[in-house]
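In response to the reviewer comment on reproducibility (Comment 2.3), we provide here a single inverse folding case reported in full, input and output, so that an independent group could reproduce the run without further information from us. The structure tokens appear first.
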């Protein structure tokens, strides 16, 4: 189903971009390359752009828990869980082809978990 906005869109013959209307009027020139646009309309497809591979849930969890590990009283609990989740995520990503989505998040979660746990133990343990 198309609406008036979609029927006013034009496609540039030089760069191939679809130019959307502005102010309810069909565009006359390409906003990208400046080419004069033809009066023919194009079908506008409203599909979402591909986002690429998504990171593993364990990677995201490791990163979030690693950040939370800097909360003083809960730091060791969150930090150790971040380390465990990060190691799990890295082992899950071991067989994946490159680029491995979530690899950096898992490593960052492990590092933050280690530092957060150590810092929390030092602060809450009352090291003198």
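Designed residues, in position order:
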């Amino acid at each position: 189903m198309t609406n008036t906005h979609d029927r006013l869109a034009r496609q540039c013959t030089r760069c191939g971009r679809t130019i959307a209307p502005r102010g309810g009027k069909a565009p006359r020139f390409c906003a990208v390359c400046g080419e004069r646009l033809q009066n023919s309309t194009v079908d506008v497809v409203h599909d979402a752009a591909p986002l690429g591979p998504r990171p593993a849930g364990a990677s995201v969890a490791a990163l979030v828990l690693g950040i939370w590990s800097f909360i003083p009283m809960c730091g060791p609990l969150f930090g150790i869980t971040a380390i465990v989740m990060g190691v799990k995520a890295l082992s899950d990503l071991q067989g994946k082809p490159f680029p491995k989505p979530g690899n950096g998040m898992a490593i960052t979660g492990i590092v933050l978990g280690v530092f957060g746990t150590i810092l929390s133990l030092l602060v809450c343990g009352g090291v003198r």
